[in-house]
Amino acid sequence: MADDRESTRPLARRDALDSPLEARRPLVPRARVDPERFGRISEGFARFMGTPRFLFYMSFVVVAWLAWNTFAPPEAQFDPRALNYTLLTLILSLQASYAAPLILLAQNRQADRDRVALEQDRQGAERNLADTEYLAREVAALRIALGEVATRDFVRSELRALLTELDRADGGSGRGGAGGQGRDGRGRKKKRSGDDARDGLADPRPGEPAEAPVGGPGHLAEPGLQPGG
Prior knowledge:
Helix content: over 70%
Order of helices and strands: HHHHHH
Largest sheet: none
Low-confidence stretches: 200-206, 212-229
Radius of gyration: 66 Å
């Protein structure tokens, strides 16, 4: 029983969730391939296969292969016509089987680059749109501000109106001052003449005797009691 308990403890400890698993070495070692380097090689192969030079080379090899294995002596033929050019068919099939994955890999890399370029273009378009909206708002604010600023023609018109009002005010005050002075002079003369008349101090006209003042000695003397009579 004790041996069974001791044998189950390591298993329970090994299967516990709080302990990390040990790294297991694979039976067959994995080949480490640089994806970037392999992608560049596949792109170069795909680009070369899409050039006229590759088509010319391939056509020349195929024609030479067929001509040699058709017109050459049977002892010198390595892929005779009697076998329907089996070796050439296998070589072309092998070339096509390798070319298709390489071309697909190159297309995937190109699609990734296009996706990155589109993302960058989208971000650039968003920045340009934001800048354009900001400039539009600034231009609108400048238009509103310029609408409230006094222009040269407006200032000139306001100055002309102010000068006209000042000229009118100066003309009215001059006429009013002259009329007031005349009326004051005539009033003073009338008042002075009235005072003189009441006091009996008015100057006699030329050639007329001066009248005695009211309430003088002539009034107090009775008729017949005048002096010298």
